[in-house]
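In the design runs reported in the main text, the only information available to the sequence generator was the tokenized backbone. The following block is the verbatim input for one such run; it is reproduced so that readers can re-run the procedure and compare outputs position by position.
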């Protein structure tokens, strides 16, 4: 089977949801909107292109960090395996959802300021503390505003 890995840059548009699978594994998932923007040099304005929406699922080692750092409205960079999920919605219609099983996630430092405090070497590993400046850049605020008015759909 071919595995398709990709990296996306976007804005978290749903509250992360922590749940347990039937097999007992924990997972955190959330929705992301990735907007393309182009600068029109003649008119000196930015214009929006189409938006890519996808669900990101975080497993195993990502759980602690994602649980502390990722929240609705935050700018992220995510890398992982991407696939299409097909499902039947509650109204009986067939739908598709794009999902990434993340291998790595971080906050997009071009759109936010982060203070990192790691774990001292002599202590047992614990959760690192990340503080995010919640005042987004104008581009991040525009991304979040665009994403708020869009129907995010639901996946089974």
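Verbatim output:
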């Amino acid at each position: 089977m071919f595995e398709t890995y990709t990296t996306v840059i976007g804005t978290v548009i749903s509250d992360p949801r922590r749940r347990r699978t039937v097999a007992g594994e924990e997972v955190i998932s959330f929705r992301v909107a990735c907007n393309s923007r182009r600068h029109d040099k003649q008119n000196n304005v930015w214009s929006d292109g189409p938006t890519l929406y996808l669900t990101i699922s975080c497993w195993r080692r990502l759980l602690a960090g994602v649980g502390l750092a990722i929240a609705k409205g935050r700018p992220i960079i995510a890398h992982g395996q991407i696939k299409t999920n097909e499902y039947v919605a509650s109204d009986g219609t067939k739908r598709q959802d794009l999902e990434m099983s993340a291998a790595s996630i971080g906050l997009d430092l071009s759109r936010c300021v982060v203070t990192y405090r790691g774990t001292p070497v002599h202590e047992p590993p614990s959760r690192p503390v990340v503080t995010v400046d919640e005042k987004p850049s104008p581009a991040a605020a525009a991304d979040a505003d665009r994403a708020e008015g869009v129907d995010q759909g639901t996946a089974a």
